[in-house]
């Protein structure tokens, strides 16, 4: 069977995350610039090959001071580690729309294996005849596992920034 290549449609995709701030509200952010190489056997996404990277400098939490702090050595250290990189090692079908995405996530020069649930929304043709596929990847990581350790204690107890980062990645893929 022929290999099918897919590209991310950036106008219909979002690489998002949320982190608890002061133990009780979420701060949301996203990466604005990213790239992926995705290949499947025909239109079957099981065992898809997925290589993804995001530019750390493109982080956007709607606050320039916070974004600059996230890019600094306290967090991502964008100067020395300009990209977040994910390379899938398996994409396993559980049922018609649910998959497990396993792979190596690299941040700040640290690479760790991660596993995230993924929902495959199926294939659809858009009005211009392009075949599209929908994929939602979600889950959580502990930022300290990658050396993103900065924090500040609160007078009331607890910490300013949660260690847990929730991921919400919405991808619309275009068949090439």
TrEMBL record:
SMART domains: YceI. InterPro entries: Lipid/polyisoprenoid-bd_YceI, TTHA0802/YceI-like_sf. Residues 5-174 form the Lipid/polyisoprenoid-binding YceI-like domain. It comes from the Bacteria. Pfam families: YceI. This is Lipid/polyisoprenoid-binding YceI-like domain-containing protein. The lineage of its organism: Bacteria, Pseudomonadati, Bacteroidota, Flavobacteriia, Flavobacteriales.
């Amino acid at each position: 069977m022929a290999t099918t290549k897919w590209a991310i449609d950036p106008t219909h995709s979002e690489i998002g995350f949320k982190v608890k701030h002061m133990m009780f509200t979420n701060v949301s952010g996203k990466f604005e610039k990213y790239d992926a190489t995705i290949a499947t056997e025909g239109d079957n996404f099981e065992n898809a090959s997925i290589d993804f990277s995001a530019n750390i400098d493109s982080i956007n939490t709607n606050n320039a001071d916070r974004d600059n702090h996230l890019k600094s050595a306290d967090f991502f250290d964008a100067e020395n580690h300009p990209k977040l990189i994910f390379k899938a090692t398996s994409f396993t079908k559980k049922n018609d729309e649910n998959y497990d995405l396993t792979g190596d996530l690299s941040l700040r020069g640290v690479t760790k294996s991660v596993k995230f649930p993924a929902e495959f929304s199926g294939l659809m043709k858009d009005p211009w005849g392009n075949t599209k596929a929908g994929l939602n990847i979600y889950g959580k990581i502990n930022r300290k596992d990658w050396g993103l350790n900065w924090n500040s204690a609160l007078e009331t107890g607890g910490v300013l920034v949660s260690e847990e980062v929730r991921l919400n990645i919405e991808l619309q893929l275009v068949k090439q």
